[in-house]
Design a protein that fits this description.
Four Helix Bundle (Hemerythrin (Met), subunit A); single chain; mainly alpha
Length: 136
């Protein structure tokens, strides 16, 4: 499978979420490198990706709650589906790197570039609050 690497074109417009997405790309690169080496045990890398996904999704969901995001349930449901698939793959004795990379790329390219872009837009400060000045 062709490997993809981080590009600024994947930015969604929220600095923290973009940073976390970039970290995902680094972890996926680590997995890809390991998958190409028959002596490398991919299980720890997969667990690291799963743990990071749990952290990342919890962060996004806390941000959604903070702004009363209108599609919280739908977005969180997608997170749960992705986590369920990742958990299945991590436990699979016949894991193929292509299976994992297809899931990750599907998530990265579909979820990140559509659902997370919507979330980033909702997290942007309103015009009124962004023009507000703080008096110290």
């Amino acid at each position: 499978m062709a490997f993809i690497s981080w590009s600024d074109s994947y930015k969604i417009g929220n600095a923290e979420i973009d940073r976390q997405h970039q970290n995902f790309f680094s972890l996926i690169a680590k997995f890809h490198t390991c998958a190409l080496n028959p002596k490398c045990d991919a299980a720890p890398v997969l667990n690291e990706i799963l743990e990071y996904a749990v952290f990342h999704f919890a962060y996004e969901e806390s941000e959604m709650q903070r702004v009363s995001y209108k599609d919280f349930n739908g977005h969180a449901s997608q997170h749960n589906s992705i986590l369920a698939e990742l958990k299945k793959l991590v436990k699979s004795p016949n894991l193929k790197s292509d299976m994992f990379e297809v899931l990750i790329i599907q998530w990265l390219m579909k979820h990140m570039m559509t659902e997370d872009k919507k979330l980033a837009a909702a997290l942007q400060p309103t015009t009124a609050s962004s023009k507000r000045t703080l008096n110290f």
